[in-house]
Prior knowledge:
Blueprint: E1 15-16, E2 21-22, E3 26-27, E4 32-33, E5 38-39, E6 44-45, E7 50-51, E8 56-57, E9 62-63, E10 68-69, E11 74-75, E12 80-81, E13 86-87, E14 92-93, E15 119-121, E16 126-127, E17 132-133, E18 137-139, E19 144-145, E20 150-151, E21 159-162, E22 167-171, E23 180-182, E24 185-187, E25 194-198, E26 201-204
Parallel strand pairs: 1-4, 2-5, 3-6, 4-7, 5-8, 6-9, 7-10, 8-11, 9-12, 10-13, 11-14, 12-15, 13-16, 14-17, 15-18, 16-19, 17-20, 19-21
Antiparallel strand pairs: 21-22, 23-24, 24-25, 25-26
Amino acid sequence: MSPATNPDATSRPARIDPSADVTGAEVGDGSSVWHLAQVREGATIGRDCVIGRGVYVGPGVAVGDGTKIQNYALVYEPARLEDGVFVGPAVVFTNDTYPRAINPDGTPKSASDWTPVGVTVRRGASIGARATCVAPVQIGRWATVAAGAVVTKDVPDFALVAGVPARRIGWVGPAGVPLERAADAWVCPRTGDRFIETDGVLKEDTDA
């Protein structure tokens, strides 16, 4: 039940460290923005989020409820993070497919010389420390990107990817642990939840 429908719920104000730079952004109740973080204008941070030390959140970036962005991660606009996303330390979400500092004639590039593209991270996904997601890519629901990976292609729901470039090496469930093969299904060893794989796509077994 959400606070909006629960009369017993109490709102906790956001905590923003004095050293953080939060200008023209929205920060939801219960969220914390820690030392030296920068949250740019037009960005929205949901409820009960943690924005770690030295994090950069670009203009207009949307961060869902319950998301954790660890120290020194760089979330460049126009990234979109859904609810419950985990972003590890020093992760980078890029936004320029063909980066250049100058034009062919030597003049400095300006904002009008390129169109930013973003990374989308779906509900519950986790991005390991120092991973780089090269926009435009989408990280699927409950997927896990291993530490140090470089993601250059979309990651399916529940996929576990690793390497440079990142490739799928297994499946994970919402509990975050690798799924195990069991006859015609994949099973979470922690929760017992079952998943069915069809043509490289994994879905919850709703008949289990």
